[in-house]
Amino acid sequence: LIYNSADTDGTLSQAEGDELVRAHFQYDEELQRKGIMIHSDALEGPDCASVLRVRDGILSSTDGPYVETKEHLAGIYIIEAADL
Q: Which pLDDT band holds residue 9 (cuts at 50, 70, 90)?
């Protein structure tokens, strides 16, 4: 799981943002080269979020933004691993 701090969104310079993206692509390539990458993906920010809840068997949906923490889930890596 890749988390991003909600209080630092938008504070990276263009060069810092470019370096972060480059580092993620490099990591993707390394995992693929090792043959353990199953899938990776970036997620939309909290301003595009929807919260789904099931209470008493009834599904409800609330549109974002909805973040109660200082971090939000920004992306995922799914890999094949022999152990932790």
A: low
Beta-carbon count within 10 A of 17 CB: 12
Q: What is the DSSP pairing of strand 2-5 with strand 71-79?
A: antiparallel
* Chain-centre distance for alpha carbon 58: 28
Taking the domains of the chain in order of start, what are their residue ranges?
2-79
Q: H or E segment at 29?
A: helix 14-33
pTM: 0.66
The CATH number of the structural domain formed by 2-79 is 3.30.70.1060
* Inter-residue contact 51 to 64 (CB < 8 Å): yes
In this model, does residue 1 exceed pLDDT 80? yes
In 1-84, where does DSSP find H-type helix?
Answer: 14-33
Residue 9 vs residue 5, higher pLDDT = 5
**Is residue 43 within 8 Å of residue 34, measured between CB atoms?**
no
